[in-house]
Amino acid sequence: MWRQGDVLIERVDDFKQTSLNETKNRLLVKGEGRYHGHFIVGEAQVYTNEDFGPENLTSHFLNIKQEAVLKHLHIITNQATGEHADLRLPPGKYRVTRQREYNPYAKIIEIIRD
Amino acid sequence: MSLALEYKTLLERDANFGFPHRVKVEQGMLFFYRQLKLSEPKVICFETPLQLQLAVKQVLRKPQTLKIKNESFEALNTFLKEETAGPRLNRQIWNEISDNAARALKLAFAKEEGLMALHNRLKPVFAKLEGAVQSKLSKHLGEIGEKVELFAHHPHYFDLKWLLHYQGRLADIPHAKALFEVIDAGLMYCYNFENLVLWCPLPRTVNFNPENLELHGEDEPSLAWNEHFQLFHWNGTEVPRKLIEAPNHISRNDFISVRNAEVRRCFQEKLGSERFSQLFDLEKIDEDLDLQGNMQFLYRSKELDNIAKEHLHFAEVTCPSTGRKYFLSVPPQIRNVWEAVAWTFGKTKEEYKPETEL
Known about the structure:
- The complex is a heterodimer of chains A (114) and B (358).
- Chain A has one domain (2-111).
- Chain A has no helices and 12 strands.
- Chain A has strands at residues 2-4, 7-12, 20-23, 27-30, 36-41, 44-49, 58-64, 68-74, 87-89, 92-98, 100-103, 108-111.
- A 6-stranded antiparallel sheet of chain A has the order 1-2-10-7-6-3, with no helix packed on it.
- Chain B is of the alpha+beta class and 358 residues long.
- Chain B folds into 2 domains: 3-206, no CATH class; 247-344, no CATH class.
- Helix content of chain B is 42%, strand content 15%.
- In chain B, strand 9 (282-289) and strand 10 (295-301) form a beta hairpin.
- In chain B, helix 5 crosses helix 8 (174-184) and helix 11 (261-271) crosses helix 12 (273-280).
- The radius of gyration of chain B is 26 Å and the shape is elongated.
- At the A-B interface, strand 1 and strand 11 of A face helix 6, strand 8, helix 11, strand 12 and strand 13 of B.
- Strand 1 of chain A pairs parallel with strand 13 (356-357) of chain B.
């Protein structure tokens, strides 16, 4: 289990689920405040979880063929933000989990947007 | 001159943007139309990038009657009643400039060094400005079900990244001279039709934090075109106007209703820990070291919150990479700071065991 900011990465044995869609998009989490994002770079298949939400925090599954790197980059310039170091992920299958928060006024749980 | 001041000087235009700048932009644009052997277009300046977007959409689709009433939209409406804008010409103007300005300069000063150094120095700051503007435009236009129209690539304030390198040596290359005059006069974006040119100027106010060169305004906008189109940033993060202009009036609900963690952190930084604790009337109920040896805390409001009808609970955690502190709201039944942090990832404190936190 590794963490890069508001993203938690865990190794899993498998991810046989029907609600997964493979995507070419390498931007796993798009920040809104400052045009930053968590990108997966390398030989990786990326699957989005259609059930993702406050009660199911798994946003993606990754199938990494060769070593891949989770990077925190500026969305426009693709330059490293310097805020989070690179996270190297060896070949394997991984679950990507987002961070959540409780809203006491609305009495709901919401995904944190970095 | 500090870099932040240099960028401010480069990008900011004075508050009374108008003559002679508008005339210079118009003259420069007419030059390119003459080169393309086209008749003189009508040139209209709009105060802000958003007004320019709306004007372009009005020309392209002509359906809506815009509520904005000012001299520029009146001029546009008058023009459209009498004439047609004609086909879009952004590509042709781009080609004209690329072929006769950019290429000619490269040939004339082929072996010079320093062009890329200037480009690389300006690129990150321009990217921040562009990202902020595009984000704001997307948000405003999204609210009315519209998308951002791409502005012309040339002329565009990005042209400063290479034109400045040749400043003072453009006289023999008329296309480059005309382009520089248009940009130097303050054109930020434009949109070209065969019979019509629409454009808007650079902001009247530009503020960067000199320490990190992020868009930042301590008590004023980071970017402003007029009273209505202003952006507020705290160290590169766009924040609500109220936080910058009226921080003493920030309420609990103002903070809780912000869903973006970075914006929340800006609230904490701007307000300061003492004011933040006072705002929520917090008391510490648990603390422990995190994996990096930083203290992490669990706080609870001393009294029941009037609106939520429960105690408010926050975990205060430290980002291991930046050292920045974040307050995360957690459910009131949580009593342990590890339990609180684990809950934010949907884990129990026994399950939450990251090997590395970056």
